[in-house]
Known about the structure:
Layout: H1 2-13, H2 25-40, H3 54-59
Helix pairs in contact: 1-2
Amino acid sequence: LAIIVFSSIREQLELVNIPKGMQGVPISLLVAGLLSLAFMGFVGMVSLKIITYPILRWIH
Length: 60
């Protein structure tokens, strides 16, 4: 899902005027950072049960 969103944003960025210093990798890093912040909001929505071994329960 993140790759599809990232690629669609990059396609849209080709149509707008971006300062020369921000073209290419810098704008991609900026978009990737903003996408990571957006997806961090979904962290608590789904919880996964992880099966642990008894020794790992003893350590905690």
